[in-house]
Every structure is written in structure tokens, then in C-alpha cells.
## 1
Amino acid sequence: MKWMWNPKFEAMDREELEQIQLERLQATLHHAYRHVPFYRELFDRVGLGPGDILSLQDLREVPFTTKEDLLQGFPYSFFAVPLTKVARIHTSSGTTGKPVVVGYTKRDLQYWAHLNARILMAGGLGERDVLQISFNYGLFTGGFGFHAGAELLGATVIPASAMSITRQINIMMNFKATALVSLPSHALRIGHRLQEMGIDPRGLSLKVGFFGAEPWSEATRKQIEDHLLIKALDNYGLAEVGGPGVSYECEYRQGLHISEDHFYPEIIDPATGEVLDPGQEGELVLTTLTKEAFPVLRFRTGDLTSLNNEPCECGRTLVRMARVKGRVDDMLIIRGINLFPSQIEDVLLSFQVGPNYLIRLYREEGLDQVEVQVESILTGREEKDALAKRIERDLADKLGLEMKVVLVAPGSIEASSGKQQVVVDEREI
Amino acid sequence: MLRVRGLKVFYGRIQAVKGISFHVHRGETVAFIGPNGAGKSSVLMALSGVTRKEGEITLEGRDISRLSPYALVKEGIVQVPEGRQVFSSLTVEENLLLGGFSKRGDKKWMRETMEWVYHLFPLLAERRKQLAGSLSGGEQQMLALGRALMGDPRLLLLDEPSLGLAPVIVEEIYKTLKELRKERSMSIILVEQNAPLALEFAHRAYVMESGAIVLSGETEMLLSDDTVLDVYLGRAREDFFD
């Protein structure tokens, strides 16, 4: 109980928890049905009413919601309360065109703060800590989500937000930050830079780091811990269900505890949609249980994981999900930004290049880099450079990510057996 | 203590409650709020066993969904009906004795409990020999409550205790409810149209709308959240600021 923010719920008797889940689920279904046309049509289409869901298992009767569904509702069609009741707006980190727009009522924001406080407290954070939040503060959910949780917890918050690695390091040293919230790749870069600058990490006050928003491996964890001399903890969330706060590691780091009093998790076979048993790997599907402004029913996250409902040594009874192993689709997560190869392809198509292209992902000093190789009939060096620059500008404009464009001779990218491989991921994650 | 899953209540072909789930802990007061016709009173009637219903109802883990109204009273589930419904041609004391029918073998218990009721409602003590029909509306409400207490409730079901009463009397009744809650540990389910009053008195609340629970939570949280009062309760919010 020592490091639990909401022991009443985090260590709740399973039977009681399932009762609360059912009650909250039913309320969410009615709320969504009555106030979101999409869900009303979804239910009507399969001849189901929200009152037909009498148990948690019955939820399987409800069709899935996909990211595409949510995007079609741009900007406010999925809001279940009038805009006058929406206190805050964030968006998914989608890069191009329309992101998923997510609203929060005041109560949603209160719950969200508690969910983030759970993550931080599970890592031993308390009033004496100075927490440096290096997530971007803006439409991205990460910065404000952790900020509210840390304030609720009573820690001292440094809203460092997005700034250069050097400035992050200066702040970390001068303000004696004891904890860090950031992308894992960001922490790795900080670690590498410290080494370059010849700074002994033992001189830092840093003890613990909370990392998420992009997949990272145990190897990365070890590197971060070795470079910064901290304990590195994983957490998971996504804007579509409110941002960080879905699940988090406790001190034992044997999977991420899902805050099941707020989210109902299912693992499905991504091909058939069939619900899988604990231990089986599949796609994580989430249903929000307390959201007022943006309830989401059976949302297909696209993330591959499995559930473990064995009791955890920490005393939490909340089910644990394995660290995310990858994606169901071809979505790439680059520096915390979600990107599909087709979005890059769309930009390329507006230039006289191609048809074949290759996206190469690699790490440079811990930072994700993207190189786009694309075929071009141009031969002149200057012409090629100019075109590459124009494409680079357009990609940055439209996708919000700096990428390197390399023009190659036609035929040099092999369109092998049918569907060519367009992504080469050399990042070790 | 009480756990309900998928409760449906029917009146003929009309479904008044659409498969709701809720729970009440020992010693906890839970309010059902929402507009007229939302199905709140039907929930209480289902728990008292006086209406056709479906669903799972357990008390301390035991299935009580098929018990008769009489057996439910013996289990300690006692309802104070809406509109009081006291026996007007009987005296106050006779009304109270009737409330203790499930305990009639225990004279000592009856006597002590009646004294406790008179202590909670000194007005009833003064009028113990009067016919219940001669009491004012507020006094009748007190009598109905006192009569329910004579049934030794583990779970007290209160249906609109404020209905049709002057604000000063309502205040009096809620004051007494708080007192009795303090003196004897019992769970209470309160149905109220006066949402602010209910939220102030209860620990948790379920918001009902056309037969379904559309929101639930700690009353503290619900009170601080004007979405509830606005979106679900409509005009009740204006009353709140009166």
C-alpha cells in the first residue's frame, strides 16, 4: 500500500472491482448511445441496445471502434457532452491532416490527474521530489497529463516541456531534478550527451524516470539506467482514451498495471476479432469506463500485448499488460509521433518521383531518424539536391517531422515479390 | 453488502428499469437521483419484492431475488414508501407496533426500539395516542420512518422523503436521518428528486434517466461537477442555487 495513490481501487477485491466495472460500463454505454450519433448507429446496426449489456462478457456483442471511425468524427462528433461542458481539448499525435480531437470535462480532468498520480507514486514519487517533465506541453497529452498528476501528488514540477537536450541537462543539474518524465529516446539522448560533456551522472540528483509514448526495449531500459543511474519505469496511454494513465509499472516491473476502474481491457485476435484468454498475445482493445466528454467503446489500439491476471507482489489487484511488443498495422512511432508509411507516400506522390520508395528508420544519439529513399529520373546533382530539399520541406510541413530525402536511380529500389517492403527499421527497440 | 446486476423491472409490457447494476456497502448511504419517471422508485419496489423483476440481487452474498416481500423485511430490507402511507385510523403507537411485526416475538426489543424512535422524533412521543390520520404531512413522514425503524432494517429504503413537505420540515427530517445513521449502523438507499439534498446526504449516487443509470460516483465528485447537474438534472440545478 506504501506506493499506491488510490489503494482503494488499485488493490480492490476483484469481485468488487468487477461490479464497479459493470456499473461504470453500463453507464458509459447509455451515455454514449444517447449522446454520440456514431454509437447509436453502431448499436442500431447490430440490433443491440445499451440495456442488453448485462455483464462484462456481454460487451463482446458491441462492435469495435477504430481510429478511422474516430477520425471521421473530426472534430467534435464523438463528444458526448455539449462543448460548453468541455474544459480542455487535446489531440492524438497524428501528423498529417486531421488528428483525433479528444475532449475532457472538468471531472475527466480530475480523474486523469489521479491516473497520472498513480503512475508517479508507483515509482516512489512524493512531495520531496522535483519532477522534470520533458514532454511537450501542448495538444499532445503527455505534458499536461503528467503535470496534473504530479501537482496532485504534491511533487515540485518543472514544466521543462520541449527544449534542447543541453538546456534539459542544465535544468536537471541546476534545479536538482530527482525524477524525469520523457520519451525513452529522449532520456537516452540526455544520457549520451552527459557522457559527451564528461558529466558524471553520480553528480545528478535524478533517481527515477517515467517513460512512455513510444515503444522501447529492455535493452534501451538498461542503457538509460546505466547512463543516468536511475530506475526507469514504463507507462502506457494513448490520446484516444485520454492520454497517459492507462497502465503503469510498479516497483517490480513485471508488466504494466491497467487502471481497470477506468478502462476495461480486452485482448483480441486482430484477424478474427475474437477475444483471447489471459496470456495470449493479441491486440489491446480498450473501453473507457468513466469518460464523460469522450467515451470510447472497444477501441482497437493497434498495440500488441497480453494480459496477466496473476496477483502482483506489489499488492495491486489490477491486471497487468505485457510491455507493448509492436503494432498490428504498419503504423510507425517516431519520436512519439504516430505515422503511417502511406502518409509519406502521399507526399511523395505530389512530386515527380517514384514509384518505389523506402523508409529507413535509425537512431542517432538515441534520437529516431527517418531517411526516405525514392526513385527519380533526374541525374543532375544540383537538380536532384533541389528536388530533395523541396520534398524534405513538404514532408516537414505536412507531417511535422524532419526527414532526410535521398533520390536514387530508377530500379535501384527493388519491388520484390508483390507488396514491397517500404520500411526498414534499424532502431533497436 | 447489497449487489445488484442487470435488474429489469416491468409494469405489464412497459419496462421501467433497463438492466441496471449497482451496489451498496455496509453503513453506506447511496442516492438515486434523476428526473420524474426515470425508474428510481421502481428500483426500490423491486428491492422490496413488490414488483415483477429480473436480474441478480444478492445480500451479503446470498441470492434474495426470489424472496417474498415479507421474507425481505425479515432479512432487514425495509422500505419507507413514497407518500407516507400510514394507517390513518390507527394511533401513532399502533402504527409503530405494526412496523415491528417481524420482531413481534421480542417484546423487550420492541419496547427499546420504540423508545429510540420516540427519542429520534419527540413529536411522535407527544402524539403517541393520537390517530395517525390527524397528523400533519411532516409528522406522517416521521411516523412512516419510525415504523420502518421498528422493522430493524439493515437496509433502509427511502422513497422521496421530502415530497410535498415544507422546506423547514424537510430539513428536520434529514437532520433526524443523519442522527439515526450515526446511532445505528445501517445502509440506506435514498430516492430523491431533490438532487442537491440527496447529494448532500448520501456518500455515493447513481444518476438515472429513462430506466438506466447514466452516471455514478462519490457525491463529493458529483457535486463539484456541474456537468451532472446541467446535462442530467436540468432544472434541478436552478433549485440548487435558489
Note: The mean pLDDT of chain A is 92.
## 2
Amino acid sequence: MPFLEIKNIKKHFQKKKGGLFSNSFDTVKAVDGVSIQIEKGEILGLVGESGCGKSTLSKTIMQLIPPTEGEVILENDSLTTLNAEKVRKRRLDFQMIFQDPYASLNPRMTVWSTLKEAIITRHGKLNHKELENKVAILMERVGLDQKFMRKYPHEFSGGQRQRIAIARALAPEPKLIIADEPVSALDVSIQSQILNLLKDLVDELELTMLFISHDLSVVRYIADRIAVMYFGKIVETGEAESLMDNPKHEYTKQLLDSIPRISIH
Amino acid sequence: MSLLEVNNLKTYFHTRNGIVRAVDGVSFSVDKGKTIGIVGESGSGKSVSCYSLLGLLPMPPAKIEEGEAIFDRSTDLLSCGEKVLRTIRGKRIGMIFQDPMTSLNPYMRIADQIIEPLCLHMKMDKEKALKKAIHSLDEVGIPEPDNRINMYPHEFSGGMRQRVMIAMALITNPEILIADEPTTALDVTIQKQILDLIQTRQKELGTAVIFITHDLAVISEICEEVNIMYAGRIVEKTDTKSLFRTPKHAYTRSLLKSIPANQVKGEKLYTIPGLPPDTSQIIRGCAFRERNQIGDQNQCLTNSRPEFKEVEPGHWVQNCPGCLS
């Protein structure tokens, strides 16, 4: 039994056609029949260009938007049939890391209050000492000095902010992490630090991860398997390196051809 | 003599928290029709050095402390004054910015934005300018240009907007095009199209290109010469081939080593420890010393900044024994 199973998910948006008072609609098929299975402890890379539906897919998995059709099954529980309150409880088990650490952290909350809030959602009321202890452990886990606990996001660099965002996602002790382009906004040198961190965390905490990116070289490095998405559909899945070395689908080939490579000849 | 020669450019920002030495003695030159790359992490001063050339920095807080930038053997861009600069900027030197979502005016139709340089610099009448604008949109591969030209920027996708920016920057046939991370915000497939486009237009028009990026792979595909910047200075400068074949400076080597594409799967990625130095503090000695793991940290200069020296014909590097070992 796979840890997370996505069964034939469809998300269609209705878009008004013609003028203000017209009643006809166009349907945008953002996600059009996607089925994916992720095993426990696996990192699945999801690749595709902007507009192919990968972010919509991640939002439907998170139950942030309801799917038009299909099922999301997490450890034998069908999330799509649960009511809103139960989803909120279950959501502690799956957390998200976003692309832009400048936008995804509340600028008026210190690291302490950001993390404290997330810990309380899982553990309920704790006394100050216990909380402080948990926050310190989290910060250490993502490579931040705990003396920065009382600082605000703007006092950190981009790489450090992404570490805070990762700590925030880890605070409710999730089992599944959806990372939506977590390194795209970072410099090469910082990018490698964050990739190492994510990989270590997956190994140490036995997390399962859906890693969304348009950068194939990053995905090849971090993911166990890769799924290539194109116009709302998965066109190819496979073991990371064999898919990169030996692409079957025309679109995957085209995607691989457009990566700039360092040539020394 | 080159088309543009920048000598010892120093741009400092005078802020409440002290002087930030964003660009601290940078020299480079561009020849006609050539492409040079400037690479560095965020905050290394690569964009600020190009903005200084075109007078695009708010002064104050920015101040150009020293240096000259001789354009076309006659004009010093840094001291010629706004009036002269206006006849050059947008006409003889064009620029493309990173984010096509914010660099076009959302309230103006593409048509009005794109003919502006023609009407201003070439004193063309509107009708003629419009014809040329439609033609130039066609050249950058925008379908149905006579229709699309009357649209607003939000009706275009990111890649299409960047095409409009390129058409706009090249419409006056500039001698130099400065491209500041033109593909960073775009997808790989679109990135390839845009890079190809810049290259073909460059060949057709004979434009020199200054390409600013932090992506070494992009550099390797399109540049002839590369300058690596670190903490406001150029640490290494050579032709692209020898940079990737025989990188000399420890910073360049660390950068190349930390790219995931060069890495065996399953092994830990190499990371450069620490952070770039704070440029609001005076740096004594080698700026990379703290983070140098690949060379020999103990041999790095501590009391004087390393000088920029030609170690092999055409291969310049900051001469710090620790970073070169």
C-alpha cells in the first residue's frame, strides 16, 4: 500500500467567455486526470513548466482547493471525503514549503512566535520551558543558531529564511512534505546548502516528499523518482537517473535539451 | 581601444549604518559584437556596477567614488552628466531587466512603450515608428504583431513580455546591450528560446552584450569572456573555455563544485561554508579567506587585498596564494 496515492485527480476551472453578462463558460483543465503513488520515505520529483498545473496539483493534495474529480488517499484515509474540520486536523501530517521565503513568512512574527504557533497546533498548550526547548531543537535541526529566536524574518538572508520556512513546516511533525520550488529563488551556493538539508531531513525524520521544480538538474540530484507533467497530465514517470538518461516521451526530451550545460570543449 | 572600457569603478552607498562598498574597484572592457558575462552571488555588486554605468542608481545614497567608463573612445559615462547620458541610454546602450512582470508599464499599451525610444531618440513620426515597432515584434517571434501591439502587458505571458523587452531594447540598434539576469524568472524551455533570440539578434545587429547572471551554465553557453565577482571585486577573468577547464581562484572552483548537475547522485552536495563578507565593513586581506576550503586558508592574505594579476596570457585572477593553491 503506497503512503500517498493520488487517483485520477482532475481540477477544472470555469472561465467566463465573452462579455460581462454572457452566460457561457470555457473550461480550463489545469489538472486533468493525474494518478501518482508515493511510497513511504520516497522523494518524488514533479517537473514541468509554469502553467502545466503542478502547483494546482499540490494545492489539491493539500486540500486547499477541492478537486473536481478523483481521490487523495493518505495512509488509507481518503482526504477528499473528510469534512473541513477533520482535514484541518489531518493537515498536520502534511506540510508545505513554498518558493519565496520573503513572502511565505509573516514579517511581524519573530522566529519564536512563528514556530511556537505551529508546535501548539500539534501538541496543544505546553509550558514555556517545553516550548522553548522544542523551538531550539527545531532551529538546530535546520542549521540556525537558537540565539536568533527573537529575530524577525527581515533580519535574515534568503537562505536563512528558507531554513525558517523549513523549520515551520517541520514543527507539527508532519509525515509528508510538499516542497514547491524550494530552491528556485536562491543562489547556487545557498541552493546546495538547502538541498543537503532537505535530503538529511528526509533521511533522519523518515519523511516522504513531493519535490516540485522546473530545474531538472536539481530534481535529478534529490529525487528518487521523477514525474514529468505537461498540460495537466503526467506524461512520463520513472526512476530519476534512468528517466534523465533515457527519456521516452517527446516532451521530456525537449525539456532535457533546453537545459543549459557547462561544456568545456 | 574597446567599445566600452570601465576602469576602477567604485560605487559606494552611504547609508545610516555606514558605507556599503557595493562595487569596489571593478574594471572590464567590451569589444564590438562580443559577449562578456559577469557572474556572482546576490550582493556581489554585479548589477550595481552596470546600473552605475547608465546612471540608474538613486544618488544619494549611491555615490560613484572613483573610476571612469569610456564609451566609444570619447564619452566618460560616469562624469558626462545626465544630459549627455540621456542621448546614450536607451539609444546606444540598451538594457533588459530580470523581471519582465515589473519592467513594463502596466498602464501603457505595448505600442506606446515600444515606440517611445524611436520618437525620443530618432525623432521619428508616430506612424513610421509604429511600423518599425510591428516589424521588430515580428523579429523577436511574437505572433500576429499588428494585433498584439495594441495590447497591455498583462495580456502577455512572462516569456512573451521578455521578448517585448528585447524588441524594445534593440529597436534603436544599440551598440551595447546590458542584460541583467534576463532569464532567471523564466522556465528552462523559455529560457532557451530567449537566449537563442538574444544571440541571433546580436549576430544580425553586431551588438556587444554584457550578460549578468548567477547561472554558470548559461554563461558557458553564450559568453566569450567571463568575469567572476565576489564582494564588490572581480576575482577572476578569462575566456569561457579556460574558466571551466582550468578555474584558478578558490571561489570559482567552489562555485563550480556546488552545482547539482556536476554532482554524483547520492553524494552530499558541496557547499561553500559561511556567508559573503559584510561590505559595510572594511575588508582587509583576502575577502574569501573565511570560506576558503578548497585552497589553503592559512596562506590567504590577511593584511593587504590581493592584486588582480595576469597569471597566464588572458587569464586574470586575484593573486592570493591561499586561493590559488
Note: Residues 188-205 of chain A form the longest helix (18 residues).
